[in-house]
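User: Um, what's this?
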Amino acid sequence: MLKFATHAETFELANVFTISRGAKTHAHVVRIEVSDGSVTGQGECVPYARYGESVESVQELLANLPSDLTRDALQEVMPAGAARNAIDCALWDLEAKRTGTPVWKLAGLNEPQELTTAYTLSLESADEMRENAKKNAFLPLLKLKLGTPDDLPRLQAVREGAPDSQIMVDANEGWSIEDLTALQPHLEKLGIALVEQPLPEADDNGLIGNTFTMPICADESSHTSDGLEELRTKYDIVNIKLDKTGGLTEALKMKAKAEELGFGIFVGCMVGTSLGMAPATLVAQDASFVDLDGPLLLGEDRAHGIRYEGSTMHPPIAELWG
């Protein structure tokens, strides 16, 4: 019989992190422990207000879980989202510890290798973003948070600051189709590799019938495998985040289906600790783009955190997860 314990935890960010929807100074996560009396598995989620979630709502969903809960049953009794992510990943971790078998092997995957992750630049003034780009110009892949009416100077400033880095842009639903169309020649000239969620989810039909010179990636419009078919005429790439899919189980299913449908794979994260990134490293193997830099944005990560060397991200160790 399983016992569950939830812990609301707060981690201070290294710097204020701003996107088009607002700024944050702390990462608020929920960690769940699942014990069978001998070993304990753990998982982490980041409740996200954009999807109607809070620490309190996640804790409520995680309360009174049945003691005979299985991963398969979980997919049926709890909706996709942050709460299911935490318990799903904790159940994977529990099985790995019970059996002495790493999660990648339990899931029938290849052994995870090092990854190259993007590093995210917060939405600031053009001058501030230029300076941040200069500081991180040695990194091969940068991601810019944009989504305002005056983003072109920011784009130009970052390219000036990091002339050799590959650059992705995340508008976080902040543009209109007119904004995107007007920016397209500039994005092409600046060598932007990808544009993530340019339009609001409710307006992304505006992408249908348009041709863009760089891939367009769905984030807020993309949650689980069930919604992929309707995205085919709008997006080239889908961003798989475990806090949206509701855990590793659905994330792996979503990746497989997305690949069958011809989508490129982007594996992203909310701002959380290495415990939240660890399961995502399994999904991110062979992905077109990886953005698992959450711990790099924290003032301090949790114990046994993932080792980062610049943009190189090493697989998690067993003491952390999996």
About this structure: Residues 85 and 247 are 4 Å apart (CA to CA). The two ends are 21 Å apart (CA to CA). The first strand starts at residue 3 and ends at 19.
